[in-house]
């Protein structure tokens, strides 16, 4: 109440000062204007009175002078007037007789100066304008003058009226402004502040979910900082809780904090540099704003938590249309935007480099070659030329960033940079270089069709460590080296020795950020029916698939299995819907645009076949979805179906298992995905076998609850024991041990 009163009085005072200033200026202007108008009108009256033989008339008729002066005063609305001949001879009417003594000095001044004179007098009367006009006779200067007395008191009345009106207007305005301001402050400031008090209280007691509601717009920055502080407090509590759990379970489960300490000890203050083609954060224009997004990528899902935990430098290609606007003069930016933990340096590719390096050799050549998914690889000399050029550009960037270090740790990501290890080691022999190959490695016969297989292999063998997802892929790589190069393959420790340099080849099954605190966390679960209703579909059961629209993911085989399941089990028609979240990918390549069209047409065909009101057999959501958007589908689906025809690991399988805090649901997993070697609790299928895949859907929907619990617990324990922090620690320890 005191604050409201203080605000009201302050506003009234402030508005009053402003109104006083404007009113004072208005009155000054108005007073000058009225005075000028009065003086002009008075001079015109005097001129008219003094015209002709008027003065002679007065001299000859002094007995009637007072009557004539009264008549003229009435005619021209004067208080009175006088005719001055000399100090002893003045004709004046009674109305102004008392003003004559105070006027003599002014009359004398006017006559001496031979000019008209204005002055304002009072002398007990209302404010009066005194006007003296000397009169010439026969073009000669005389000592005679006409003196007019005009009422000027009305000017004061007008000015007083302005003051009164402005005061009333000001008072009303001040009250309205005060009322509106108090209302705005109470609802626009106090209410959000009260929310912030609730948020701080929620943070103190650990209720993080309550922090997600955004405040009023102008308090958004404060809300953001409070959320960060609250999350940091919550994470600290969770870390303490997790450490207690680790001691209780006597387990060696890796956490971000443990990884940070381990990497710090291993690096010994040496810089860690991650190199990839895809960047972890992209900036795009969205209207007049710049929006930051995390691209859909298993590699980013795996590497991001490591850089957040350990810091360092990530070098990647800038691909967002606002990327150049957000970096500094060194093409660097601190990320994540809301709470920077490491540095991202962006390199820029020309359109020709992108066409030939990325779309050409990387994704029309190496990608289909390594996946053996019935898409013929295409090799062009010009693509390889740009592939070398971009690898050289990245090598120069890495060397520039590590110029002051002799033994930096350099972790190269994926098939885009097969030549990069050798280029770096050639210039910096003591650097610790590793390359992790996120996709499969084919058998020697398949890889042998690449015209530049020797150059690719020699580039990779420049690394100290080569990592694959599985031992199966390691074996294929060593067999390829053995058949293509003159080198010594040491099968007892899975290494290659060539020209005095030894490269260790090891499996590192990549994973996700999943710790004990995540294991015990239950993801809020809405019903499948509710999620489907948001998309205009009525169904009781739901399956989920999440893939980039890529010919290696077996999406069409998945749809055929759903179709066959509904054929064999008609009771599920109208009750079961399969949701496929498909992110468009590499649509500039014909094989990918054809695949996208094929996926859409197959979904339409199956939906048309089982056409029913308010129901679809397949719901295809064809756009990029954030992790937050996908999680409700993971948590609510009866099963997740991964049908990769050939895959490195496939983290979708692990992400689905990670969300199942209630240990329910089922995972249908292709045996051609690397994850199938770890997640033995999944229903393993051959995606080419449509009949068995359809049966797997039925098994997943009708699996007893106790079996679901047993399988899901086993898979979740595998993931928490082999999470991304464990993967990173194993990889970096292997690099440090070389």
The level-1 CATH class of the largest domain: Alpha Beta
Derived from helix and strand composition plus strand pairing, the structural class reads alpha/beta
* Sequence of strands across the biggest β-sheet: 10-11-9-6-12-13-14-17-16-15
Could you estimate the helical fraction of the residues in percent? 40-55%
User: Please, how many domains?
Assistant: 3
How large a portion of the residues is in β-strands, by DSSP E? 15-25%
For the record, the CATH architecture of the largest domain stands as 3-Layer(aba) Sandwich
How confident overall, as mean pLDDT? 85
Q: Which word captures the global form?
A: elongated
Radius of gyration, whole Å: 46 Å
With helices defined by DSSP (H or I, 4 residues minimum), what is the helix count?
24
State the CATH superfamily name of the largest domain.
Glycogen Phosphorylase B
InterPro entries: Glyco_trans_20
Pfam families: Glyco_transf_20
Family: Belongs to the glycosyltransferase 20 family.
Protein name: Trehalose-6-phosphate synthase
